[in-house]
Amino acid sequence: MGKLQFVVLLCVACGNDAMGPQPEAGNADAPSDGSLDGRTDAPMDASPRDAYRCTTDAGGGPTHTVYLAVDGVSLVRGNCNEATTSCTNLISADVAVPPLLAGNPNRQQVISDLVGQLQQTLAPYEVAVTTTRPATGPYMMIVLGGTCSQVTGSPLCSGLVTGFATQDCGNQVPSDIGLVFELPNFNGARYANVVMFEIGFAIGADTTSVQGDCMCQSCGGASTPCTLGIDVPIFAGCGGGTQDETRIFATAFGCR
Predict the structure, then answer these.
(1) Measured between alpha carbons, how far is 230 from 217 in angstroms, rounded to an integer?
(2) For residues 217 and 11, what is the distance between their CA atoms, to the nearest angstrom?
């Protein structure tokens, strides 16, 4: 069966021991070949090593949405992971998450830089990034704001924790929720790297210790844009051994 688990991403010394509980969930088995939903219609580059990289001239437009909740949102505690109802198992009680960087004079610039970097990193894929909540689902929601303790009440909130997410093995949930916490001295680029990690985790990608990779669990929000890799060594989670992150994103979102 596909597993649901949550991760704590620390700024330093993060390893497999930073993984939280990994309860079995009632979702369908993940495909054994590492793909997420079996899609084969997305246009891919034909070169052998880059077999799952999206082409840049495939045409099309966004068919998926990542909503960045930067203006505050109320989350409901439940045995769920559903952006359209703001229901999540990542919190210990219902909570009103405050806006990201409320009162900070640089707030708009940080958010603009965050959105711009995400749009650039996700440009090959059919996914739109917005700070306006869609009227209807499905969509992924990444909630930004508050501290780890304020938002989750988790005992795992020790050290510099950047985010929690539910790993959706097999990408069975169409409207996942991820949490990114407000941190000192984080600019738009650093927040964007953490958000990329949460997006990847929410579509079933595993964590790695490779510096500069978007799924690096120990990078803690580096200041340079992360990249999606091929044949990346990973910690055990949904899979094992290595993963092709370009394939995971192309399978989940499709190619433009």
Answers:
(1) 17
(2) 8
Pairing of strands 95-97, 73-77: antiparallel
Q: Is the pTM of this model over 0.90?
A: no
Which residues face 164 on adjacent strands? 179
* Contact residues for 24 (Cβ-Cβ < 8 A; gap 6+): 1, 3, 4
Report the number of distinct structural domains present in the chain.
1
User: From CA 231, how far away is CA 248, in angstroms rounded?
Assistant: 12
Q: 36 or 225: which carries more pLDDT confidence?
A: 225
Q: What type of residue is 50? A: D
Within a domain: 216: yes
At residue 244, does pLDDT exceed 80? yes
Distances (CA, A) of 119 to 82, 108, 116, 124, 189: 23, 16, 5, 9, 12
What is the predicted pLDDT for the residue at 60?
56
Contacts of 106 by beta carbon, 8 Å cutoff, 6+ apart: none
Contact 206, 238 (CB under 8 A): yes
CATH code of the domain in which 97 resides: 3.40.390
Neighbours of 250 (CB within 10 A): 25
**Over 50: is that where the pLDDT of 83 sits?**
yes
Residue 90: which domain range?
Answer: 4-10+58-253
Flag whether pLDDT at 93 surpasses 70. yes
| Within a domain: 124 | yes
Q: Note whether residue 145 is domain-resident.
A: yes
Instruction: Please state the separation of Cα 68 from the chain's center in Å.
Output: 11
* Cα radius of gyration (the chain): 17
- Pull the structure tokens for residue 49: 């090593």
The C-alpha atoms of residue 246 and residue 232 are separated, in whole angstroms, by: 10
In a domain, 219, yes or no: yes
